[in-house]
Amino acid sequence: MTTSADTRRPILTCAAAGERFALDVASVERVLRYTTPRQLPNSSAWLRGVIVVGERLVPVLDLRERLGLPAPTPEPAARIVVLARADGSVGFIVDTVDEVTTVEAGQVEPAPAVYRGLAKAYVDGIVRRGEELYILLATEHLLTSQERLALRAAVEEVLDGRR
Q: How far is 10 from 99, CA to CA, in rounded Å?
């Protein structure tokens, strides 16, 4: 028997470069006020740096830049959304975090091949809430395997420098 809880999906809504996004709450480790990440020498342009979260160094990327959107200097409302991944945590800078809410399965539409210039690989679906549309990001696909290796190497380089 299917209950209404089975058809509900908790999401975190946020915005970046004027676009509305949603993230599956299960992939969100925490939301932090924006602090300037420590820049890493010889790192890729899309890697903003690292921040310390508890006892760990977490690499930080700008979601706007990662998705090919304009990426001005973060404003005071900016946040870093730390995503928990099997291969380690990664932070993404967003302009604002709006709320944690729950949507019904019927509010999530399948991802089109391309939506507002974003490839389907980045999009799990489109969330319709009233008149608003949110791009439900496929967080496990925001980084390629090569990019994940580059992140790991950059963090290890910083850790080796501390020792």
A: 10
